[in-house]
Write a structure and sequence with these properties.
Glucose Permease (Domain IIA); ten-stranded antiparallel β-sheet; three-stranded mixed β-sheet; 6 helices; disordered N terminus
Length: 295
């Protein structure tokens, strides 16, 4: 029986990798190792989408800087945070701190540690899937892994890592704009959209995405009529362009509780709901926090 080319290529990685990996000093195009990693990651995606043999696995090192998170780093690298988390055995988003050294792979996927130390690694190791046997050199020695190319954390693994779940704020999921860079629908310029826009007729019920306390309501420029809910762990959710608010500041609300009706207030091209998830005031990609969703 002949093995697929992909497996043949990765089987070469059963021997030890270099103990000193190329070091990325800045997540910026001025850093040559960063540029090389970006090239390799983009090449992986191109080959993965066309079914071509994948590129050989390579590993880089990066030291976490002040105010950086697993989400901001993965976003800049265009690399799923699943890859970084499983390769480094990161238990949860708060477990990574300034000064930590991360191993950054050029191949997105799930890295299953065959000698798990953290609870997340133990949960991931329960997967009954065939993958590619590789070995990664770390400070404690040569560690055997199973690599699931292009795979993501599943619903239970993701929920455990995030330590929280958020529900979507509407019954339907008709999106007009997602999180990330886009052309502003009014100004016509490229800008970063900090949340998700859901198409919703005026009067559509809006639900609290998670248990929390109403921390602010009012009217604000682009946002129009808005609500901010404070949640445990430094999280906040924002609901804007509303037509009617049916809660008050300091009210405690439950996940799924009706808090407002959608509208078309503020600067808007039509009736919709703008929704954000923030951590310590920084907008994050809501898609990372919905159960069952992947990047």
């Amino acid at each position: 029986m002949k093995l697929p080319i992909l497996i043949l290529i990765y089987s070469l990685l059963s021997f030890p990798l270099f103990s000193n990996y190329p070091t990325i000093k800045r997540l910026h195009k001025s850093d040559s190792h960063y540029l090389q990693l970006q090239y390799e990651i983009n090449e992986f995606y191109k080959r993965y989408q066309t079914g071509k043999p994948s590129i050989p696995l390579s590993i880089y090192e990066y030291t976490v800087k002040k105010n950086e998170t697993i989400f901001s780093i993965s976003s800049i690298l265009n690399l799923t945070y699943d890859s970084i988390v499983t390769l480094n055995g990161i238990e949860n988003p708060e477990a990574m701190e300034e000064g930590d050294t991360l191993l950054i792979p050029n191949s997105p996927g799930i890295y299953i540690n065959q000698s798990p130390h953290s609870r997340l690694e133990e949960i991931v190791s329960l997967r009954d899937e065939e993958g590619l046997n590789i070995k990664i050199r770390k400070t404690e020695g040569l560690i055997p892994y199973i690599f699931l190319s292009g795979s993501h954390l599943n619903r239970n693994e993701r929920s455990f890592f995030l330590k929280t779940l958020f529900r979507k704020p509407l019954e339907t999921d008709f999106r007009t704009s997602d999180y990330g860079f886009r052309i502003h629908p009014i100004e016509g310029k490229r800008h970063f959209h900090t949340g998700i826009d859901y198409r919703a007729p005026v009067g559509t019920f809006v639900f609290s995405s998670r248990d929390g306390v109403i921390s602010d309501t009012g009217v604000l420029g682009n946002y129009g009529l808005y609500i901010i809910i404070k949640h445990e762990g430094g999280y906040e959710t924002v609901y804007s362009h509303l037509n009617k608010i049916i809660v008050r500041v300091n009210d405690r609300v439950l996940s799924g509780q009706t808090i407002a009706e959608s509208g078309n207030s503020g600067i808007s091209t039509g009736p919709h709901l703008h929704f954000e998830i923030r951590k310590n005031g920084i907008p994050l990609n809501p898609n990372d926090f919905f159960p069952g969703d992947t990047l």
